[in-house]
Amino acid sequence: MINTLLKDVQLYRNGCVITRKGVAHLKPGTQSVRIGGLSSGTSQDTVRLSVPEKVSGSNVQVKGLTADEKKELTRELEEKIAEVTAAITLKENLKELWAQNADFSGRDGISIVDMTEYLEKIPERLEKLDNEIRELNKKLADLNKDLTEVVKDTKKQFVTADLTVEEEGDYPVSIRYYASSARWYPTYELHTDDQNDEILIRLRACINQKTGEDWKQAKISLFTGDPSISGTIPTLYPQYVNIYTPRRMEGSVALGASMRMMAKNAPMMVEDEEVVDYEAEEATYDVVEEAAQINKGDTMIEYELNGLWDITKDEDFMCDISNQKVSCRYHVVTVPKIDEAAYLAAEVKTVDIEDLLDSEASIYHNGTYMGKVYLNADITKDTYDLSLGRDDSIKVKRLQTRKHTSNVLLKAAKKTEYEFEIKVSSSKPKACQVMVIDQVPVSQDKTISIDNRNLSGGEFKSETGEVKWTFDLEPGTTKSLALAYDVSWPKDKQITI
Predict the structure, then answer these.
(1) Do residues 479 and 471 touch, judged by C-beta distance below 8 A?
(2) Measuring CA to CA, which residue among 404, 485, 493, 484 is closest to residue 445?
(3) Are 485 and 418 within 8 A, CB to CB?
């Protein structure tokens, strides 16, 4: 069996391509060789063998050990385990025998001197036997551990090939294959401060591999693609429209559906985690190292990690990929119709974050951890707001001050008047820019009309009904906005709003 060492890993969001290298000692002519080292989760149809130009290869196959070969590999260890187990049993029996012989009742012809001498020797001999049993148990544990590893190795597959050379010598060989048992995912840190109109975007990678072995001193490249996702171009099928008549739900049926909907929309409960504080000398800077070269391909981005890396199996491994400072405009955004909370945001040019990956991000403001947000940039727009979490120094209140329905006699219609007041207050130490987003309904029926009576100078988008106000808010001040509109419809109809 030709042993190989893992040298290179191309890691995708799901799965990886592993390259292993070894040396084969070949004699003149054609010979069959076995090349070991395939990882668990290897896709057999992706295995490729590479040899030098002076070597010709054929009949490349992926195989496993036969039952007799597996038995032969474990035979020696199993025999040693049996020997040690027998020795432990013998020592245990000797201990029991010594204890039994210490009972002299009913035994004649034994002098006091002999009994005394025997009893004096018991502690020393029992202690010696205990030490010997302890050492044998340690040896047995080590042997069982070795046997477990050997059994794992017997389950691994290997590559067989017929190699032909003209001269005897050592020739390098390498195998390359795809394994599904590894993955990585991106995670970001967003660092902001009060001094500069820029934001630091730190990209990190979390790597996890379950290939059954530790990756030692390996070259690692991270790719943003996912080979596990189908590459087949989708087919567009006809979309059919039919008349739908809803069935009426009564009694417990309607109640059950309502309860299921409530359960679906209920917030998840998160248990509090125990927090442990550690005292240490004050640190002066964060340890950050850019660990990757960025290569943009036609279909995905490659992050080529610098140097060689050790990545232990079954453990999460974190590494820094890049640090990017991006110019931004800080402002506060609130959508009080949905949530009466204000959010600090950094407006950036989309072109500056076009490589941003959809991922979770941790927020740090002036070095203080502020929570997490999810990044999902819309690259179809010129700018994008990076959410930096809630801003408790801005308070928002949205009140409905009027809702009145009346009949419009001349038009045989009904009309409902809606009025809202939005108040925004600031306790910040300096002025800030605030963006308030609200909406009015959008009619999808020509018999329903919407009349915007008061938008307080807000920017209105008729296709979506969005109303947006942008203004500067001084410390300790409150800004009030009015939103008023009327909805009219035929009086013999009902509407949903």
Answers:
(1) yes
(2) 493
(3) yes
Instruction: Reply yes or no on whether the pLDDT at 245 is more than 70.
Output: no
Asked if residues 439 and 464 have their Cβ atoms less than 8 Å apart, the reply is yes
Q: Residues 31, 32, 36, 41: is their CA dihedral positive or negative?
A: positive
In this structure, how many other beta carbons lie within 10 angstroms of the beta carbon of residue 338?
A: 11
* Every domain of the chain and the residues it spans: 4-67+155-179, 68-153, 394-490
User: What are φ and ψ of residue 128, in 5° steps?
Assistant: -65, -45
Render pLDDT for 125-137 as a digit per residue (tens, 0 to 9): 888 888 999 999 9
What's the pLDDT score for residue 252?
35
Mean pLDDT for the stretch of residues 252-272: 34
DSSP character at residue 272: P
pLDDT digits (tens, 9 = 90+) for 311-324: 999 999 999 998 99
- Residue 15 and residue 179 in contact, taking contact as beta carbons nearer than 8 Å: yes
- Which CATH class, in words, describes the domain spanning 394-490? mainly beta
Give the chain's end-to-end CA distance (angstroms, integer): 74
Tokens of 259: 């309860």
Determine which helix (DSSP H) or strand (DSSP E) holds 126, and give its type and residue range. Answer: helix 112-155
User: Residue holding tokens 């294959």?
Assistant: 177
Sign of the dihedral defined by the CA atoms of residues 256, 262, 264, 270, in that order = negative
Going by C-alpha positions, the residue among 441, 444, 446, 488 that lies closest to residue 467 is: 441
Instruction: Give residue-wise pLDDT tens across range 424-455.
Output: 999 999 999 999 999 999 988 888 999 999 99
Per-residue burial over 364-378, b if 16 or more Cβ lie within 10 Å, else e, is bbeeeebeebebebe
Under a CB-based contact definition with an 8 Å cutoff, are residues 206 and 316 in contact? yes
pLDDT digits (tens, 9 = 90+) for 323-344: 999 999 999 999 999 999 999 9
The helix or strand, by DSSP H or E, that contains position 385, with its residue range, turns out to be strand 383-390
The single-letter code of the amino acid at 72 is: E
Residue 421 Cα distances to 77, 266, 298, angstroms:
81, 29, 51
Cα–Cα distance measured from residue 98 to residue 93, given in angstroms and rounded to the nearest whole number? 9
| Whole-angstrom distance, CA of residue 190 vs CA of residue 187 | 10
State the pTM of this model: 0.68
